[in-house]
Amino acid sequence: RNFFTKRTKELKPAVQSAPGWKLFGKVPPRENLLKDSKIIQQEYEARTGRMYKPPPPSARRKNIEFEPLSTTALILEDRPANLPAKSVEEALRHRQEYDEMVAEAKKREIKEAHKRKKIMRERFKQEENIASAMVIWVNEILPNWEGMRATRRVRELWWQGLPPSVRGKVWSLAVGNELNITPELYEIFLSRAKERWKSFSETSSENDIEDAGASVADREASLELIKLDISRTFPSLYIFQKGGPYHDLLHSVLGAYTCYRPDVGYVQGMSFIAAVLILNLEEADAFIAFANLLNKPCQLAFFRVDHSMMLKYFAAFEVFFEENLPKLFLHFKSYSLTPDIYLIDWIFTLYSKSLPLDLACRVWDVFCRDGEEFLFRTGLGILRLYEDILLQMDFIHIAQFLTKLPEDITSEKLFSCIAAIQMQNSNKKWAQVFASLMKDNKEVDKNHSPAPKN
Length: 454
What we know:
Layout: H1 13-17, H2 19-23, H3 37-48, H4 88-141, H5 145-148, H6 152-159, H7 164-175, H8 183-202, H9 206-211, H10 216-220, H11 223-232, H12 247-260, H13 270-280, H14 283-293, H15 297-303, H16 307-324, H17 326-334, H18 340-348, H19 357-370, H20 372-385, H21 387-390, H22 395-403, H23 411-420, E1 424-425, E2 428-429, H24 430-447
Antiparallel strand pairs: 1-2
Helix pairs in contact: 7-19, 8-12, 11-12, 12-13, 12-14, 13-14, 16-17, 16-24, 19-20, 20-23
């Protein structure tokens, strides 16, 4: 309390406002005003009696036309006074080099500006196309779906990609609802799933589950396994992670499906398909589309791990692989690299894990239009796009490359390669080739079946 003096009335206002400055031997900020350099020089000369002499002209920097704005301009600077000065030839050479660097920088800047303008023009054009396409879909196609879905105009518009605002609706209509699932049915299976999760959390050991008569599919539907896969689904999107807005929603759709189809259960890869549907549809509609989509022959064969059917799909794929990309086909054959090494992951997730999400959605667009054939056509399009790179790789590098595709893949490049793939072999289309493989397999099974006993 006795640290500061109590006679505050005798202090000046400037001192009162900042007593701490006096304590540390400094002056208040208001007293420490900036002085002009000439005044400082005059005070110095008055105190010392010395006259200030400027350095000789040779030691000073030459008066050039500009101040250097970056390290590039340092080439025009004079050397320090303790080093020999530049010759005229050297100074001219440095000036020329500097001008060349500036010109090159301007070229790069102009090129980048043109590139940005091009990207913006393409983006505006794309947005305009989406807006005009959305009007057509909403006002003309969707109200007359059954009559217009197979027309050439609609199919061409479909190929260009669905507007995001109508994408979910078109997917639902294209996939259909052959299973006749209703939102009420979804709620029933969701409540069953919640009851099962509760019983699983209360069960202390796996033996108790087996004693209760739970099947393998029931164990696969446990909360822990689905939760583990949900955290791996689009890890870059927080919305599906724990605490995200879609985490519980994705968990509900997957849990309800395992109760609806205990014969299939939960299989890794399902979470990606359900997540894409949730991004484009309401909860009940996403479940309806999910259940019907997984009921298609190709998806059912893969998710039920039907080896004989999967081998037929791989065999049909290789028929068109050899037809379209013979050089790459032989390269793969030389390393005994079979389609299952890369196709299984692509088919299980419908490319949503392997491709950027926006590009995967466009693949889904045409998949909903053309069916399973387009999944294998997309695979061939990817191989065609990277054919030159893959031809230079060995088995390990090919497998690694196809497992994790480059992130800079664009829809224009991929779809141009997909369009170049011909899904016809000896005048037979995909469905005919696959049907012939099925027929040949049945004949083989018939010939190898045991003779009937007398």
